[in-house]
Amino acid sequence: xxxxxxxxxxxxxxxxxxxxxxxxxARMAVADGVTDMACxxxxxPGKYPNSSATILPAMHALQALxxxxxxxxxxxxxxxxxxxxxxxxxxxxxxxxxxNGSRYFLLEPPHEILPPKLEDFVTRLLQAGFVPIIxxxxxxxxxxxxxxxxxxxxxxxxxxxVTAGSVLGAFGAAATELAQRMLKENMVSFFAxxxxxxxxxxxxxxxAYAAVAGRFGSEQAEQMFVHRPAAILANGEPGYLMAPGSTxxxxxxxxxxxxxxxxxxxxxxx
Length: 270
Known about the structure:
By secondary structure, this protein is an alpha/beta fold. It is 41% helix and 13% strand. It has helices spanning 19-31, 52-68, 87-92, 118-127, 147-156, 173-184, 206-216, 218-233, 238-241, 256-267, and strands at 2-6, 36-39, 42-43, 74-77, 80-82, 104-108, 131-135, 160-163, 190-192.
């Protein structure tokens, strides 16, 4: 499994990385079946002033430590990015990292209120060549009331990432209900842990994988926990990454071979 949303660089948001916690999170993830993980600390203007300049050195240092301790987890750069007026400029100049240097990045809208002109903002990002992945829409307090906005964002080309714990009830009944609705309506592109620590919000995916496989089949679970995340890391075509039913979806020209090549490229299996 591949986890594209994890705060494994523990406490980097607070300016002092907890290395021991990061290593323990890596051990937990590997034991749970995770092979690759994106390091995605917050980037929030005025609150969490992270950038490529702070994230990359911390990620490289942690990767070296994991290798020294024979922990087989491959780390990839990323960030949990909040809306800002200069976001496109910062993506273009590289100060805001995308996922593994691809066109994809995690975009976290405000939790409490629907930001004005969100669709226009997302459209400008797409026109600039970047694909915003909407993080945990099922946990946004306004999402159920404005579900048509979530649907339109998916339709114009935004993959939807659901938190693994949401399908297990970890974030309350409302988040679980919305996650299930999105699954039924084929709006979920992939799952991630959004792990924050070793006791609460752990970096685990296997229980959610089993729940999705049990309800929708192992093939769908593989798409959402392995193949689509691998394709994102390999900068794959956006249409392939959308859940079935999205209006921007198209069929990859090389069928299942396309999927295998992305997985092999990212995981190093061929």
